[in-house]
UniProtKB/TrEMBL annotation:
<comment type="similarity">
    <text>Belongs to the glycerophosphoryl diester phosphodiesterase family.</text>
</comment>
<keyword id="KW-1133">Transmembrane helix</keyword>
<feature type="transmembrane region" description="Helical">
    <location>
        <begin position="122"/>
        <end position="142"/>
    </location>
</feature>
<dbReference type="GO" id="GO:0006629">
    <property type="term" value="P:lipid metabolic process"/>
</dbReference>
<dbReference type="GO" id="GO:0045666">
    <property type="term" value="P:positive regulation of neuron differentiation"/>
</dbReference>
<feature type="transmembrane region" description="Helical">
    <location>
        <begin position="44"/>
        <end position="63"/>
    </location>
</feature>
<feature type="transmembrane region" description="Helical">
    <location>
        <begin position="162"/>
        <end position="184"/>
    </location>
</feature>
<feature type="transmembrane region" description="Helical">
    <location>
        <begin position="196"/>
        <end position="213"/>
    </location>
</feature>
<dbReference type="GO" id="GO:0005886">
    <property type="term" value="C:plasma membrane"/>
</dbReference>
<protein>
    <recommendedName>
        <fullName>GP-PDE domain-containing protein</fullName>
    </recommendedName>
</protein>
<dbReference type="InterPro" id="IPR030395">
    <property type="entry name" value="GP_PDE_dom"/>
</dbReference>
<keyword id="KW-0378">Hydrolase</keyword>
<keyword id="KW-0472">Membrane</keyword>
<keyword id="KW-0812">Transmembrane</keyword>
<dbReference type="InterPro" id="IPR017946">
    <property type="entry name" value="PLC-like_Pdiesterase_TIM-brl"/>
</dbReference>
<feature type="domain" description="GP-PDE">
    <location>
        <begin position="228"/>
        <end position="486"/>
    </location>
</feature>
<feature type="transmembrane region" description="Helical">
    <location>
        <begin position="87"/>
        <end position="110"/>
    </location>
</feature>
Length: 596
């Protein structure tokens, strides 16, 4: 007669089952293991980490690129010839992929924290690999199609850098718990020492990162320049069709100080407003002149241009998602917009007492006004009776001739030139893309009394950075948004930021030291107590011992046999199991039952 004593009484562990089940489809207790993760599975975990951080950068890029979403769609239109919202599918796929990858990362870190073996399910492996390849493809495609937009990441770090540093420091500090668990609880190995060294190097880099952070917003509030004036770039194209009278009126209603437009020359020499080379996107040319949709807009005479509708496309495409907020009266006004001439824009600016800046596109070579485009434009400006000092003249062609005939015009360059060349050409103003407006250049322009207008600024964060940099004017497609920014979003004195930096580093260091001491204290206490205990998850129907290198037989069924009324087996047998790697078991948990 013997008495059978089960080695372990199992308890339900629903959370752990869900954790291992979702990550590796290991829903049963016997499928889980505390063995070291294999090299193959470690490789997949590394690929998961790469996918996560790559998607993090990709998501950050598109979040900051919101300032130029319209520019991206316009770029796609010029390549494909069809207008579509290319941003929406990119954003949806980015959110889905990032959420999926972040979820798997959380599950993997939980596995590590609980000492579970990583074993990513094959379906997840396919998903992670697909996400990684898709993200790499997206990065390469954007680099080929929209390479200049990467500059906005560097500019945005001037605004978000101090805050991203705090977030990164908090995340790495939290990871200290996992690193301490791996280093303190396990046996010392080269991998663990290498992991600890890597962690300390990353931590040291974060502690010293503020030395490389520069931002114009780190300044004394007393040295802040006056608020930059806002120019309506093509009017207010988020609220009305671009380059139409309604769009410019909307911009004036939101307090712009200048109006900016794109000018082309009609067949008989009438300057009119049109951004695209063709009329296909912003007019109903396909209805009135279907065979001429691909023709250059300059090859139409003014009568033909005036007969086109310039508002129906806006109601149909809704490029900024603002049509639904319009009243019925506003929609009717939009539907009745026509192609606007430069003379109409100048008359509107004269009544509103605001400045005008325009980009002039030269007609094609076969155009009858190809050699007279500057004369046609200058004559229109002079006939409008607007003060010439209110007009910012940007064309470089025949600039000397224009200066002689209209010396009051404000000569403006769209090219970043050395100060000596600006002075030689008589240029007193610049209009540049925000990526070309660097802090040293801005200070130099201010010192030499050269006014600087920066485009395209639609987001409050970019407006704040340029404001702190000292820019005097910005061109925006969203004057109604910038109107709500009376002050920079944030400014901070360098001394205040230095104090926050040091305090954050000290808190992080104290938390990490405390974490390592706490974990090490429990291990030392466990070893000093002489207690031997088992982790219930180590006991599985088909489990192997903790270290696969140990030559211990696989246990198919674990029973302790002892004779009735005999004290044999308790301590000695448990010591035997402890020597074979099972160090998480207590004799007190044995359940007893007599069998005959």
């Amino acid at each position: 007669m013997v008495k059978h004593q089960p080695l372990q009484v199992y308890e339900r562990q629903l959370c752990l089952s869900c954790l291992t089940g979702i990550y590796g489809c290991r829903w049963k207790r016997y499928q889980r293991s505390h063995d070291d993760t294999t090299i193959w599975e470690s490789t997949w975990f590394f690929l998961l980490c790469c996918s996560f951080f790559l998607l993090l950068v990709w998501s950050y890029f598109w979040w900051e690129a919101q300032n130029d979403y319209n520019e991206f769609n316009w770029l796609l239109y010029n390549r494909s010839g069809e207008w579509s919202d290319g941003i929406l599918p990119i954003l949806i796929s980015t959110v889905v992929c990032f959420t999926y990858t972040a979820f798997l990362m959380v599950l993997a870190l939980c596995h590590i924290a609980l000492g579970q073996q990583l074993n990513l399910y094959w379906l997840h492996k396919i998903g992670v690999l697909a996400v990684f390849i898709a993200t790499i493809t997206g990065v390469v495609s954007i680099d080929n199609l929209w390479r200049n937009e990467w500059d906005i990441v560097l500019i945005s770090l001037q605004f978000t850098g101090p805050f991203l540093h705090i977030v990164a420091l908090a995340a790495v500090t939290a990871l200290g718990w996992l690193v301490a668990g791996l280093v303190v609880r396990g046996e010392r190995s080269r991998f663990q020492m290498g992991l600890l060294l890597l962690y300390l190097l990353v931590l040291l880099a974060l502690y010293l990162a503020p030395l490389t952070i520069t931002s114009p917003c780190l300044m004394d509030r007393s040295s802040l320049q006056p608020r930059p004036t806002v120019t309506g770039r093509r009017g207010s194209p988020m609220l009305a069709p671009e380059n139409t009278l309604m769009s410019f009126n909307k911009a004036l209603q939101h307090g712009v100080s200048a109006l900016e437009a794109d000018v082309a020359i009609s067949l008989e020499g009438v300057p009119f407003l049109m951004r695209d080379r063709t009329l296909k996107r912003t007019t109903d040319v396909g209805r009135l002149f279907p065979e001429r949709q691909a023709d250059d807009a300059s090859l139409f005479n003014w009568t033909e241009l005036r007969s086109l509708n310039s508002g129906l496309w806006f109601l149909k495409e809704d490029p900024f998602g603002t049509v639904s907020s319009m009243t019925t009266r506003e929609r009717n006004r939009v539907g009745n917009q026509s192609v606007c001439s430069l003379a109409e824009l100048l008359r509107l600016a004269l009544r509103a007492n605001c400045s005008v800046i325009f980009s002039l596109r030269r007609p094609p070579l076969q155009h009858p006004r190809h050699h007279f485009w500057i004369n046609d434009t200058l004559r229109t400006v002079q006939k409008s009776r607007i003060p010439l000092s209110k007009v910012m003249w940007t064309p470089d062609s025949e600039r000397e001739k224009v200066q002689r005939e209209a010396p009051q015009l404000q000569q403006t360059s769209q090219e970043k030139l050395p100060m000596l060349q600006l002075q030689q050409r008589g240029i007193t103003a610049l209009t540049l893309h925000y990526s070309q407006a660097q802090d040293p250049d801005i200070r130099q322009f201010l010192k030499r009394n050269v006014s600087l207008n920066v485009y395209t600024v639609n987001e409050p964060w970019l407006f704040s950075v340029l404001w702190c940099s000292g820019v005097s004017s910005v061109s925006s497609e969203a004057p109604h948004i910038l109107r709500k920014v009376p002050f920079p979003i944030w400014t901070m004195s360098p001394e205040g930021y230095c104090l926050i930096w040091i305090a954050a580093d000290l808190v992080s260091f104290a938390v990490i030291v405390g974490t390592f001491l706490y974990q090490n204290y429990h291990v030392i206490r466990w070893k000093a107590s002489g207690m031997r205990s088992y982790n219930p998850e180590q006991i599985m129907l088909s489990a192997v011992v903790r270290r696969p290198s140990r030559n211990v037989n696989i246990m198919k069924e674990k029973l302790i046999f002892s004779e009735v009324n005999s004290d044999v087996g308790s301590t000695d047998e448990l010591s035997l199991y402890t020597e074979n790697g099972y160090d998480r078991y207590t004799h007190g948990t044995l359940g007893q039952s007599d069998h005959f």
